[in-house]
Amino acid sequence: MLSDRPGTRYLLLFSALAAAAACSDRTQLTNPLTPRDGNRATAAPTSGGKVKVKTLQLSSNTLSIDGPTVNGNVTIGNSASPIDGVSIHGLIVQGSASREASAQTDVNCAGTLATLPGGSCDMTFVASASNSGNGSGTLVPGSAVFELDVVQTVGGVETVLASKTITITLVAPVTISGLVLASTELAIDGPSIAWTATLSNPGTIQKGVFMQGEIIQGATVKGAGGATITCGAALGTLPPGTCTFGFTVTASNSAAGPGTLIPGPATFKLQLLESDGTTTTVLDTRTVDVTLVLDQPRITSIDVNPRNFAIDGPTTLVTVVFDNPTGTAVSGLRLAETISQPSVPAQHAAGGASVSCGAGDGIIPAGGCTMSLPAEAWNSAPGTGTFIAQIATLQVDLIQNTGGGDQTLDSESTTVGLEPPPTPIISGITLGSSNVTLDGPATGYTITIKNQNINTFSKMNLTLSILQGGHGFGVGGGQVACGGASGDIPTGTCTITGTFSATSAAGLVAGAATLQVQLFQFSTSITIFDTETVPITIVPNALSITSLQLESTTITIGSYVNYTVTVYNPTNANLSTVLVQGEMIQGSTDRAAGGTNVVCNGGPSGVLPPGFCTFQFIAVASNSDAGTGTLVPGAATFQLTLLVFDGTTDTTYDVKNVAVTLVNP
Questions:
Q1: Where exactly are the structural domains of the chain?
Q2: In terms of Cα–Cα distance, which of 270, 269, 268, 272 is closest to 290?
Q3: C-beta of residue 69 within 8 angstroms of C-beta of residue 118
Q4: Is the per-residue pLDDT at 319 higher than 80?
């Protein structure tokens, strides 16, 4: 592993690459260059002798555009006496593009800088292909020419004494073509996060290659770890093609670099570098936006369902999502909830619980987890002020106790709504029967009352009325009895039972009606809390058919439909040989439509016990059954007659009719 950063601030040791040739950082000329033309023609030296570039060689004839330098060797011959003011200068020519490839450098052959002695002079230099170098045009991958000029400068005027060219190949630069972090959230001074980089080398083998990361946040720059690449070849060697390499990034304030990292947005910068032991060249750079967090558990989100709280009412479920970037489980954790209304002002505790995510009481495992807990808006909870029905703020605090006291690690808030305190309601009405006998026996009822308020309501009453024909008739009621003091409704559910009757003396008649139940508080005035109604049918206090319901009012001729019938026995004794007989009537046509003895709750056939009896049979539409005339498609009437047979004679007690439609098969 390498140190945090390269360059003067960081020491990088490449002992495995010590044999690499020496080179120096390249520089740029002040003025742009152009390809050699008539204005820079080769000229004879002022001494009258002849200068010649005898040999020219590059360590590689393949250069990466905007990539690392290559070393060069040149031998210059001078057949005359020493020449002053001599330098060498390299450029790359490709079509109309010409870019400086080697900075103008004074010859240094005989101990006197810029003097070319007679005879031969051997020199080394470095060259590179860069579109940021002096010159014009754009270098692209492909064939090009490297030209080295021997230049004499006299009085500010340059004269090319000799030149030599060699053919080179330019290739696209080595790049980081992909960079993926295992997580873009980094804990400051916390565990490392793995990254994977894809390296692309379209050219020749590159040696001395390594990668270095930095975390950048404004003016703060911290080393974030680096390593020499391993791509299937020798350490630090990047072969042609594509290579995947991985390491880790760490956000640490103890790493080299200025400033201090704080929670918030930052940038992970990864550089692909090449070093020859003397000079380090940046081959490519990639960045990824990251988020820095404290090296401790935190709340990443809270969700409230439902989002509206009833003041002094039932609890609401709060779901909390935790993130633990520390790499290990953290214990001693709990949550505290608070609801506040600064404009009132009012603030009360809203609940809390030990963290419970399946990893143990009070423990958030490495990575994080999710838990749910209740919350409430109660004025009786610890706090100050009185909540009112308007928006409020729910705050959830993550607190750790390590034995030395509580420390709040994180807090998250969300806006919630507060609604008026709930009042008791009638949540259900159940009747012994929806058929209520006029001037007959009482009908039983069960009324369920729900109080979701945390407070008990006193002086509460129920009143029962039958509504019929636009009038209301009181049939019962009084103070509620929920097991405590009379008239008190405590928190929770209360069930009240009783009976009511329908009397003709009150003005009620047989037919449809509605039972109305009101829940109200009677103090200095009457406050109605809830009203609920149930449909009923008032039936005569006589042997009768109280209801008849066909499964369908469309009947195919030659077929049948099911029906449900309820009959009523007002006496206190069983009636025997009770039956129903159906007829299908259409104008003057009257055909038998099916009949049966009553069958009540699995009892004997034809026996009708006191009260109501409901059973099923069929309504037939058939021209083959007894009767007269012919049934045809169209409107008809299904008539059901209730009879009692005394052994000799059938006596009719009631008749019910239902309009039907007959259709062809």
A1: 31-171, 175-293, 298-419, 425-537, 544-663
A2: 268
A3: no
A4: yes
